[in-house]
Amino acid sequence: MAQTVLLVDDEPNIVLSLEFLIRQAGYAVRVARDGEAALASIAASPPDLVLLDVMMPKRDGFDVCQTIRANPAWRAMRILLLTAKGREVERERGMALGADDYVTKPFSTREVMQKVKQLLPLEA
User: Fold this and answer.
1) Nearest residue to 100 (alpha-carbon basis) of 73, 77, 123, 117
2) Quick one: which of 111, 107, 104, 109 has its CA closest to 81?
3) Distance between CA atoms of residues 114 and 119, nearest Å
């Protein structure tokens, strides 16, 4: 069974391009458009990796990240934050809340895919 990536972003163009590339790389992909939908999706079926936008409606990515890390059943889940907030203080906050890595927008899709593969190596 393919490893699962939950892509959480409210920007349709980002979702479209990353969803395509992640599937092409051999992962299963699910999409959530806001923080509440992300947590509902995780509760229903925890993914292996969450690509998590920080600025979203309802619950922001920092809050979702913190909620994931507060649940012992989800501790093994990897989290990659995607955000336009590129200042060092935001990066430090994301890492302190439990993110495994952090990519600032605008980003190259190649960079994101390298991070996905580092955090979630495909099984041979």
Assistant:
1) 77
2) 104
3) 9
Q: What is the DSSP letter of 121?
A: P
Tokens of 1: 């069974």
Helix ranges restricted to H, 1-124: 12-24, 35-44, 61-70, 88-96, 109-119
What DSSP assignment string belongs to 79-97?
EEEEES--SHHHHHHHHHT
Tell me the C-alpha distance between 27 and 51, whole Å.
13
pLDDT in tens, the chain (124 residues): 689 999 999 999 989 999 999 999 999 999 999 999 999 999 999 999 999 999 888 899 999 999 999 999 998 999 999 887 767 788 888 889 999 999 988 888 889 999 999 999 876 4
